[in-house]
Every structure is written in structure tokens, then in C-alpha cells.
Amino acid sequence: MITLSNTDVRLPFKDLHGLAKYSELNEIARGGNGILYSAFDQIAGRMVAIKTLWPGYRFERSARRRFLREARVTAQIEHPGTVPVYEIGDDNEFGIYYAMKRISGENFHAVLRRIGKGDHETLEVFPLRRRIEIVTSTCRTLSFAHALGVIHRDVKPENIWVGNFGEVTLLDWGTAKVWGEPNFDDGRHHTTPVRPQHSISAQVNNVAVDHISKHIDDLPTLTPADQLLGTPTYMSPEQISNRDIDERSDIFSAGICLYEAMAVAEPFRGKNREETFENICSRRPAPPSERSTQFSIPRRADEIVFKAIAKQPSARYDSMNQLIEDLEELIQSL
């Protein structure tokens, strides 16, 4: 709650550097490469979220470079569907950190899990139409990122945040790839081809795409040759085989999210990672409308899903905008 008492105050008397400008630092989550804290920004007078590296990696060179990449890419993709980054800094104790908006709500995976367990109240709040709208909003954010030359590479319900007021945010750009960058951190690499200009917007918020992308392209390349990035059940076939990828890989992952959002079932999950990869590369799942008849999924939805998750990139939607158009038409028909 904003009140006069927390806006009409003086700034701290002394200069504060690094994380010293934040108080009430409390750990709220841990991830693969870092720790997330909530904190109070004494300068702006607001609660924020702060991400830092794990203690053992805070002063390790390659880990710092990767973390800086994540922070800067996240900061440069300014869109209603991303989390605003307020500051990137280097603290004597915690190392590199970045502060961002603290969001409320829950991830989409938690919503789908409750529906899958038969929670009727959740289903009332998130009927089929609303679940498709959430995936569509995520696709809009991805479309914007693609226009900047950025591929997310880890699109999944756990990274889709549904806010308390209906806002939809795509999180975790830590594995994002920029078109035209080499894959590896040494001289033994090949370059991801740049997609034709007709597949991306010429302008984003009246700022030339090539100008914005240039700043992201300046960041160092950090992906090791033998590392698969992404979550196995949402990877595209080209990610699994470690081939060059473009925005159609995100389209594949978004298609899996769409399938799961509608059918409340994962299309490709196997007994283990190997079987899951085999399913993704070789098996066609049951249509969502047949997999979960209780949700009255229209046949048109099946067609959209299968085009998005086609095994060959050339058989998929050529751009995220094309997928969005079909999803908007589908929503209007429900």
C-alpha cells in the first residue's frame, strides 16, 4: 500500500553502494544458477526481487559472465510480458546481482497441476479459453523477443507467471540465445544463421531492431558445445540433436505448452529422458481433443497444436505472429 508516510521521506544520509542500498534481504527461492531474494529498496522506497549467483560461483569468471548475460538480456527485452530490471550491480560480498520488479501470483504449472487434480475452483477461474489466452500472451512476449533476435530456449509452464490481476509474464531468460552468435566459448564453433528479415518486425516501439540487437550481440558467447539447454519435456527436436535453432524452436516449445494448457497433460513425457527425447523426435501424440474429452477442446485447436509441434521446423509456423493469429481466431470461437 502506498501512503504519504512511505513517499514523503528523505534519502539515506550516506552514499550506499552495491546491495547496501537494500534492506530486509530475505531468501525466497533457489534455482540452477542463483538465489532469489526479496528486499526493500531504501532509495526508491519499494520492495524488489534480487538475484545473485550461488556463493561458490560468485567470483568464478565464467559464471559471472553467464550471469551478466542473463541480467543484460533480461534488462534489454522491455515488454509488458517480461520482468523489468531496475539495476545491475557488483557487490563486494555477493558479487554480481540484478534487482527487478517483485511480481505476485503463481506459475502456470501450479495452475495446471491443480486442475489436473480435479480442483473445480481453479477450473472455474481458468477455463479452456483463459488457459489458451495465457499461452497466447506468452507467444506475444516471444514474438517481441524474436524481433530483437532473441530465442528463449526454455519456454514451459513453470516459466510462465500468472499475476494476481491477470498479467502474464515470461520468466528466466538465462538460457536465451541471440541469432548470429556462435554456440561455443572458444574458437571451435559454428554460427546460428540469422533468420530472413521478413520473419521479424522492422520496428519495435519505433526503435530499429538492428540497433537494439547490436547491444545484445556485444555480449560474449557462453554456451558450451556439449551442453543441452532447456527442459527435456519441452525441447524441440533440433535442441535435442544440438543443431542450429531459430525462433521455430520456441514455437515448438510454445506448442507443447498449448497442448498441456488445453489437455492438462504432457504430450511427450516418457519413463526417462531418453524415452522423452524419442517421443519428441519420433512420436505423434494423441490430439488434445481426444486426450482430454472432458474439456471440450475443438478440432481446430488440434490443428494449431500439431502445426506448432511439427517435427521439422519447415512444417511449423514460420513465425510466432502466425501462431498468434490462429490462436486469437480460436479464442474468438470459444
UniProtKB/TrEMBL annotation:
Protein name stated in the entry: Serine/threonine-protein kinase PknD
Q: Which domain of life is it from?
A: Bacteria
Transmembrane intervals? none
| Keywords of the record | ATP-binding, Kinase, Nucleotide-binding, Transferase
Pfam family for this entry, one: Pkinase
Question: Which EC class heads this enzyme's classification?
Answer: transferase
Q: What is the lineage of its organism?
A: Bacteria, Pseudomonadati, Planctomycetota, Planctomycetia, Pirellulales
Q: Tell me the name of the encoding gene.
A: pknD_9
Enumerate the InterPro entries for this protein: Kinase-like_dom_sf (IPR011009), Prot_kinase_dom (IPR000719)
Molecular function in Gene Ontology: ATP binding; protein serine/threonine kinase activity
| Assigned EC number | 2.7.11.1
Instruction: Please list the residue ranges annotated as the Protein kinase domain.
Output: 22-331
| Coiled coil location | none
